[in-house]
Design a protein that fits this description.
This protein is mainly alpha-helical. Helices cover 77% and strands 0% of the residues.
Length: 62
Amino acid sequence: MEKCLDKLDRIDGFTYEDRSYAMEVFESAINREVFMKSKNHNARLLWLKRKISACRALTTIM
């Protein structure tokens, strides 16, 4: 998880709230692997933003 968060810290455009949701996304080993091994930077960002949106939606439902 530490490597994912380090990589995320080097990316502009994410708010502190986004970063907090990313921590939830990175709880999954599969999500960490997808994030770290994705070759295309733009695809990685879109994927992470979509995952963050899904986490955000789940917390508003509960």
